[in-house]
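Let's practice the habit of predicting before peeking. Look at the sequence and jot down your guess about where helices and strands might fall. Then scroll down.
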Amino acid sequence: MDAIKRARRLTWKVLLSNFVAVWLLVIMASVVAFGEGRLQWWRAAPALIALICFTWLCPRIINAALDRRYPTREVVLAGGLAVVAAALGGGEPFGWGFVLVCWLGLATLQVPRRTVYLMAVGTWAVGVGIGVPAVALGVASLGSGMSVGEALVLYMITYAVWCVIMPPSNRMWMWIWSLAVQAHEGREAHTRLALAEERLRFARDLHDLVGHQLSAIAVKTELAVRLSDVDADASKAEMAEVNALTRKALRELRQAVRGYRELDLAAELNSVKGVLEAAGIRCEVHLPYRELPDGVAPVFAYAVREAVTNVLKHSTATFCDISIRFTAQEAELSVRNDGVRRRRAADLGSGLAGMGERLAAVGGKLSAHPTEDGEFILNAVVSLPLGG
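Done guessing? Here is the structure:
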């Protein structure tokens, strides 16, 4: 499961936890009412049916909100069911009345701020308007020993607290989800742009390196055809030049493809740094002041790409440190992050296993393991001069 799916599932679970709170409060209020002899089945049964229907509708509202839609029909229907359940159940803010608060938290997910205020005030008024008469009629347990005025103050304060807390809490999670979606879309756009730029670069290189040679070959071939009936020696000389140009073009084409297939370490470091920071992971890169020995940079570029891929896919890191050093005997790449998960140090995954084989082919070795201070470190070491 990729990061965006995990973020969606986490947001969905957090928003759905409101219904767990609703059912717990309703069950507790019903048990207290039953113990006090206030539970009336002719009210409790339809209230329970309304709550079940409300619970069935709310996941649809959450999914629509995560898809950046506002399901007006479902929100209105859920609001009606919440009023019915609260009115029949007694309207206690720590019981059946919490259904109204839960509805408010969902109904305000995709609306402007002014609408949030209006809906919060309306929910507060409905909750107080249902709860206080229930106290006066002896239906509600909360405030049963108080006067109507005292119950009014209690219900006004309690519902006000709920209506102030619930919408911002749920909207904060939706904001976090929106940021995750934007970061994911930005990363995909960056990837597409990088691919497009690389295609343009390769096309430009082919045109610059091979285009001139092919044009010369076309001209000289046409000239050789014209001279074939007039001056055979001149025609042979032109064809010899065509052969030389063809070999030169083929050699330059191979060089261009070889350079295209080999990763550039500097470009790869800039790329992974941008991707990590876009994902909210602070990245620090430490490089030697001298250029790396021949052949080391492409090998380390692949290792950096694989290491950062694992940081993004298999950890919960907040920072990543990439360091490269070398001496006359060896060169070392170190990638360290604080997002280690509990797993066997030998379990490197197929990507890192393949990287270990790549390093072994040039006389190097790879190690990846958690450290004692709760971090995860990957080391790639190659002996110099490079073997293989």
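How did you do? The two ends are 37 Å apart (CA to CA).
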